[in-house]
Design a protein that fits this description.
homodimer; Jelly Rolls; five-stranded antiparallel β-sheet; globular
Chain lengths: 106, 106
Amino acid sequence: MTSNLFEKLPDDKTKEHFEDLITANNVRIERIVSYGQKSSEDFWYDQSEHEWVIVLAGNGTVEFNNGQKYTLEQGDHLTIPAHTKHRVSHTSTEQATIWLAVFYSD
Amino acid sequence: MTSNLFEKLPDDKTKEHFEDLITANNVRIERIVSYGQKSSEDFWYDQSEHEWVIVLAGNGTVEFNNGQKYTLEQGDHLTIPAHTKHRVSHTSTEQATIWLAVFYSD
């Protein structure tokens, strides 16, 4: 009945892995595992839901289209309001970066 | 714009500390810091919302009123459906236990 967020990391390090932990009507909780991946240069996420995200291992940089950049280390969390364009400009190439993201609407 | 979940731990170790990180209509994200506290013997949480909870430091035991007990170590997560009576029967007395809880409705 319990699972561990740091275990069963995906083997394939050539891509990023997204796994839903909870899907309900109003909330989705997702584990993201990155192995050095970043968004394409011209790619911006433009999400209809708010996102609260925390880095629990590794590190990753979130860039907003107003130029602001935040590098999240273990424990750092950030809220990304809906339709706030952003991309991931860097993730650690030395270790797995484990993100926990909660998507929710108003 | 970022905060760190593992920093600014409360000084007062004689009680448990609850801090809302996100409050929206349909979701609430909370950090709980326990210093060995546990629920009273005859106390059961009976919540109107579902709860997804993960332990990110220390350890804690969640007991359900059907007798099941789960000790959560770092990274372990558990879903507690609404109105599933439960209590915290133990938290670490050796270090702070940091819980991250997401409360949501259907």
